[in-house]
Design a protein that fits this description.
The protein is of the alpha/beta class and about 210 residues long. The chain has one domain: Rossmann fold (3-Layer(aba) Sandwich). Strands 4-5-1-6-7-8 form a 6-stranded mixed beta sheet, with helices on both faces. Strands 2-3 form a two-stranded antiparallel sheet. α2 crosses α6. The structure holds guanosine-5'-triphosphate (GTP) and magnesium ion. The site of guanosine-5'-triphosphate has 22 residues, from α2 and β3.
């Protein structure tokens, strides 16, 4: 039997192999309302080929899923996205993107299990979809940063107004990003890491 062809098909790519120096793994969840760019962000920053569970949106979701602002969207996450990014030789982040549609939110409980922190992705055209998301994180005590995904049509919001609109405490970082860009997504994750680190220095908040 010739195994060469199957080895080529199933063998891991060199970039998929976790370096032996990676001593600490951290789980981070990417949350947000429907269509804010969660799958895009995980795909942009992941150094491994991301696992996605997207299904084609059909006519049955018309009137249920609000496509305002993301009219060209044709697929939606039904379970989770998964990706990985090495922050340095020793620290690796496992990224779990959540489904945005409320009918799949029951899956969040499992995805939050063991998560050190979260990124709340926000679209300023549809801030209201973020309220419940933030409420759920606060209920569960998961620390988070807010990342504003800049769609071209999104209205600009001064940070102070955004903080007030989302009713965020002063210490929660708000950063802007373009979920399609790897460097931008990486900056968001670094902001989360810095925030988590700051919480360890002020234990009464963590
Ligand atoms: N212009 C622009 N388009 C974006 C950006 N991020 C995502 N998109 C597009 O917006 C749409 C929604 O992105 P997704 O990544 O599927 O959003 P999601 O949050 O995973 O959506 P659900 O899983 O359905 O909740 C897709 O068509 C993306 O190509 C962005 O930063 N700028
Ligand atoms: Mg998605």
């Amino acid at each position: 039997m010739d195994f060469r062809s199957s080895e080529t098909l199933v063998g891991p790519r060199s970039e998929d192999i976790l370096p032996a120096s990676a001593a600490t793994a951290v789980k981070v969840v990417i949350v947000g309302g429907f269509g804010v760019g969660k799958t895009t962000l995980v795909g942009a920053v992941s150094e491994i080929r991301p696992l996605t569970t997207e299904e084609t949106m059909t006519q049955a979701s018309a009137g249920v899923d609000d496509l305002a602002g993301v009219e060209r969207k044709t697929a939606t996450t039904v379970a989770m996205d998964f990706g990985r990014i090495s922050i340095n030789d020793e620290l690796v982040l496992y990224l779990f993107g959540t489904p945005g549609q409320q009918r799949f939110w029951f899956l969040w409980n499992g995805l939050f299990e063991g998560a050190l922190g979260a990124v709340v992705l926000v679209d300023t055209r549809r801030l209201e979809v973020s309220f419940d998301v933030i409420g759920r994180l606060e209920e569960r005590g998961v620390p988070f940063v807010v990342a504003v995904n800049s769609f071209p049509e999104s209205p600009g919001f001064p940070i102070a107004e955004l903080r007030a609109a989302l009713d965020l405490p002063d210490e929660v970082p708000i950063v802007e990003c373009d979920a399609r860009r790897r460097d931008s997504g990486r900056d968001v994750l670094m902001a989360l890491m810095r925030y988590l680190y700051s919480l360890t220095l002020t234990p009464e908040r963590s």
